[in-house]
Amino acid sequence: MNLKFQLHNHGFEIHEQACPPALLARLRAEFPGDSVDDGELMAHSDTVRQEAVSGCFYQIAAEVLGSGCFPLQAILETKNELVQPWHQDQVADQGSYDGLLSVRLYLDDCSFFDGALKLCPSSHKHGLLTAQEIRGHSLRPFSSPEMKAGDVLLMHPLTIHAYAASGTANSRRVIQIDYAASAS
After folding, report:
1. How many whole angstroms separate alpha carbon 74 and alpha carbon 52?
2. How far is it, in rounded angstroms, from Cα 98 to Cα 15?
3. What is the pLDDT of residues 90-139, one digit of tens each?
4. What architecture (CATH level 2) is domain 3-180?
5. What are the C-alpha distances in Å from 36 to residues 17, 30, 31, 77?
6. pTM above 0.90, yes or no
7. Going by C-beta distance under 8 Å and a sequence separation of 6 or more, which residues neighbour residue 79?
8. Contact 113, 106 (CB under 8 A)
């Protein structure tokens, strides 16, 4: 199936093994399994900043948003024990969600038992929703793709998603970079 079709219609798509092995190894070493969440990776990691501005992450985002896209923020998520209810991402300082994209690199394999991300397909098409509307969508069938280290998930920020707590001792590290398309 055409990947851009999946992103447009379902709100997410998977690029298997999209991260070069050497970069994946460097990031895994920089953010070991006992790392904590970090919402300021652009300031704290030269590797992430370089890849977000002109490297691997940028190239993936530019395929969707165009060559003028730019990173808004980069975060490290390590939600092994955390349960996160159904929600939409609120991207800082953005009034409109047109032209936004989240690029999520998995540093670890993540199966359903590891608390894989659950996604409500096509929910992004309904715009920014209230908590009650999100609860209504969460009752519908969802997708929970199993990801391998090096896989990249592209996601519209308004795609409703959630995490369960991990049922294993495995790490669940994800680097997420949110991008915006150029205004021109």
Report:
1. 8
2. 22
3. 875 556 777 899 999 999 999 888 888 999 999 999 989 999 999 998 88
4. Sandwich (2.60)
5. 24, 12, 9, 7
6. yes
7. 37, 115, 163, 166, 172
8. no
Comparing CA positions, the residue from 53, 39, 27, 3 lying closest to residue 171 is: 27
d(CA 78, CA 37): 6
Amino acid letter, residue 158: L
| Tokens representing residue 121 in the block | 């397909």
Orientation angle between helical segments 21-30 and 46-53, nearest 10 degrees: 140
Quick one: DSSP state of residue 113?
Answer: G
Tracing tokens 């294993």 back to the chain, one arrives at 168
Whole-angstrom distance, CA of residue 164 vs CA of residue 13: 20
Mean local confidence (pLDDT), 144-168: 91
Residue 7: the pLDDT is 87
Q: Which amino acid type is present at position 115?
A: G
The predicted structure's pLDDT at residue 166 = 80
Phi, psi of 57 (to 5 degrees): -65, -45
- Identify the three-state secondary structure at position 19: coil
25 pLDDT more than 90: yes
Tokens of 1: 């199936």
Structure-block tokens of residue 159: 């795609």
Q: What is the DSSP string of 29-78?
A: HHS-TT---BS-HHHH-HHHHHHHHTSHHHHHHHHHH-TT-EEEEEEEEE
Q: Report how far residue 24's alpha carbon sits from residue 47's, in angstroms, rounded to the nearest whole number.
A: 11
